[in-house]
């Protein structure tokens, strides 16, 4: 009986996320969980977006439902969030808009037209200057769309699961902006 209880306790412990402690990535404290929509989202992982050997931002992924792969997260009914913490002055408003445009094109397979109006609304998030230490959080709400925050302030809600999946596809899709970052955000 004692062996069964011990085995059950071990099995339960293995189901808990291995990354339950807060972490620091490139000087950015990434919490073990965040709260949004009245729900606690658990951190999957975090990593650095680099381009041409320059470290641009820390990207982190949170979800209501732990243990899913990228495809499952993109199609999940669970709330999830991608958070970007800007760590380089090389990220400007114009560069952020350009990067999101490129990511949307890749994530949509070049079919941006049906999403254009909503994408333009989303890109208005970056009309104000983007500075080091700015934090952007995109909350994926299945059946609704995406809430977008800058430094904790809700700026917009973009409706539609198609927009939600495409936006999150920038980081988690088959052609992510950065394969190493995708892997890190998934905690792999």
Automatic annotation (TrEMBL):
Q: Which InterPro entries does UniProt cross-reference here?
A: Chalcone_isomerase, Chalcone_isomerase_3-sand, Chalcone_isomerase_sf
Signal peptide: which range, if any?
A: 1-20
Q: Which superkingdom does the taxonomy of this entry point to? A: Bacteria
* Keyword hit for Isomerase: yes
What UniProt keywords are attached to this protein's entry? Isomerase, Signal
Domain Chalcone isomerase, by residue range, is: 24-187
A Pfam match is Chalcone_3
* Gene3D superfamilies assigned: 3.50.70.10
For this chain, one GO molecular function annotation is: isomerase activity
Protein name in the entry: Chalcone isomerase family protein
